[in-house]
Write a structure and sequence with these properties.
Elements: E1 12-27, H1 28-31, E2 40-41, E3 47-62, E4 71-85, E5 92-103, H2 106-115, E6 120-122, E7 124-129, E8 133-139, E9 147-152, H3 169-173, E10 181-186, E11 191-199, E12 205-206, E13 208-214, E14 229-243, E15 247-250
Parallel strand pairs: 5-6, 5-10
Antiparallel strand pairs: 1-3, 1-14, 2-4, 3-4, 4-5, 7-8, 8-9, 9-13, 10-11, 11-14, 11-15, 12-14
Length: 254
């Protein structure tokens, strides 16, 4: 019955020192098969979107503990933008389906894999931040999710990347993430687990980035889906954040 522990049973608090999120566009029909029951792709026109979120996190701990007992670490998450319609209320919720997470904190990976479905893996992370730029270099076992990106902070707001399918920044901001919910699928009970995030001072700024390595896209199934298109890049700093306990919703049987 260990799967019951993975329902995000403990409310969590943390502080985001900074967050850099890149969203990549893929043909919607290519991403849709990667989703479990109960989730549908959140699209713009015919595109679906996968985000790479890089977050320097401080003081992460259960909500009932003081901040000085929290842990600080670096986290990278690969997430697909999705929607879920609640069976009882009919509400159409926007959120993220997490495919993979990397962290430089082994204790975080150990407990994260026992209390969530976020698929944590250990990684070596080097990052620097100045008033003008953020540079992040991530190395993973076997090179399956190596990442190197440099973000220019001197021009904010920056224009959208040339490869973006979005017509303007307002539309692109809808896919800036993180969204109100994260969704897990529990196959043992054919259920969706919903984790609601609560944030403050949320004002992501569009920036220019140079991505020189993103090997996650070099492996199946993404290396078979066509060339990913950088759709947007958003940056923010100094954000208090918390996650509520997960709530399980049993899906109807067809």
């Amino acid at each position: 019955m260990l799967y019951r522990l993975k329902r995000h049973p403990i409310p969590i608090k943390a502080h985001f020192e900074f967050s850099l999120v890149l969203a990549y566009a893929f043909p919607g029909q290519a991403l849709a098969p990667l989703l479990p029951p109960g989730l549908k792709l959140d699209t713009y026109e015919d595109f679906g979107f996968l985000a790479i979120a890089m977050v320097r996190t401080r003081q992460l701990r259960p909500s009932f503990l003081p901040a000085f007992l929290g842990h600080s670490f670096f986290l990278t998450g690969y997430r697909i933008f999705v929607r879920h319609q609640e069976h009882d209320t009919g509400r159409n919720l926007r959120g993220l389906r997490i495919l993979r997470s990397d962290t430089d904190h082994r204790l975080m990976a150990f407990f994260g894999n026992r209390l969530t479905h976020y698929n944590y893996r250990p990684a070596r992370v080097n990052w620097t931040r100045t008033p003008d730029a953020v540079e992040i270099d991530i190395r993973t076992p076997n090179g399956h999710a190596d990442l190197h990106v440099r973000a220019d902070l001197t021009t904010r707001p920056a224009p959208l990347p040339d490869s973006s399918p979005f017509p303007d920044l307002q539309t692109a901001r809808r896919f800036a993430g993180p969204l109100p919910f994260t969704f897990d699928y529990e196959p043992q009970t054919h259920s969706i687990v919903k984790i609601q995030g609560v944030r403050e001072h949320w004002d992501p700024q569009p920036i220019r980035v140079d991505v020189t390595r993103a090997t996650f896209f070099d492996h199946p199934p993404f290396n078979q889906l066509g060339t990913p298109r950088l759709a947007n890049a958003f940056y923010l700093e100094d954000v208090p954040y918390q996650w509520k306990r997960g709530r399980r919703e049993r899906l109807p049987r067809d």
